[in-house]
Amino acid sequence: MTADVxxxxxxxxxxxxxxxxxxxxxxxxxxxxxxxxxxxxxxIDGEFADRHYAEHxxxxxxxxxxxxxxxxxxxxxxxxxxxxxxAVRALNGATDGVKAAPGSLRGDxxxxxxxxIVHASDSPESAAREIALWFPGLTR
Length: 140
Prior knowledge:
Low-confidence stretches: none
Order of helices and strands: EHHEHHEHHEH
Helix content: 25-40%
Oligomer: single chain
Number of strands: 4
Shape: globular
CATH topology: Alpha-Beta Plaits
Strand order of the largest sheet: 2-3-1-4
CATH superfamily: Nucleoside diphosphate kinase-like domain
Mean pLDDT: 95
Strand content: 15-25%
């Protein structure tokens, strides 16, 4: 493994699962040569959402996000590859689906800032924290 290989957490959110977009999302990551290290379909409760989004819990926009992310099944996965964090965030596109560039996941599939198909770690530190939360048995 080279120094630029890293892991990142991705959540394929309930809106994407409900719309049958899991395969389309995964195929974009795989086409970018990102390896799936771990993957699980699960539904989370509010307490788990609060732990995941700990830095946002006090924000006025958080309660609707919490309600959304706990509304149905999602797919949690760990991807690995060269500069994986940066690569995944580029593939995902801007957080607001309306502002996201065409060709990005959000640009192609989302029209919302909240129901925006995917979540991805934004730094090596958040990736380590999120992977430990979602996949505590995963060793690096």
